[in-house]
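Tip: read the tokens left to right.
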């Protein structure tokens, strides 16, 4: 298990859970989002992230698609089936093909699909919009 977590120096605007099998992606996202005032934590193992959902209570999930054991689609389905998690927005962040995966991610309960690499200014805007419930 790899878990990365940082609390911002000032009170957090929101809590963001990052699930990606690439440690570098998690570290980069956690560092950037924490510097932007969010409380961010990440997991490289989707099953462990599912177990941590209730204790972390995220306001948003940034989710990779291709992961071992439990892929992003299955994670999203399982998360949305759990009482209290149905309304948490999920943004799929993947290096996979945009058209087919964007359609499938929406079908599985994702609010948005974005392709890697994600420019930081775009990531920050997407996070703000998702937390405000604008998609």
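Filled-in amino acids:
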């Amino acid at each position: 298990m790899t878990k990365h977590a940082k609390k911002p120096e000032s009170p957090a605007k929101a809590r963001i859970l990052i699930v990606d099998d690439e440690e570098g992606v998690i570290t980069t996202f956690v560092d950037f989002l924490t510097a932007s005032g969010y409380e961010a934590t990440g997991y490289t193992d989707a099953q462990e992230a599912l177990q941590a959902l209730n204790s972390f209570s995220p306001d948003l999930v940034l989710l990779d698609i291709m992961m071992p054991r439990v892929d992003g689609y299955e994670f999203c389905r399982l998360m949305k089936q759990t009482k209290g998690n149905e309304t948490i927005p999920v943004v799929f962040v993947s290096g996979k093909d945009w058209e087919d995966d964007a359609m499938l991610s929406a079908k599985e309960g994702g609010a948005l699909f974005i392709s890697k690499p994600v420019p930081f200014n775009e990531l920050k805007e997407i996070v703000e919009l998702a937390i405000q419930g604008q998609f």
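The CA atoms of residues 94 and 115 lie 5 Å apart. The helical segments are 23-35, 46-56, 72-80, 98-107, 120-131.
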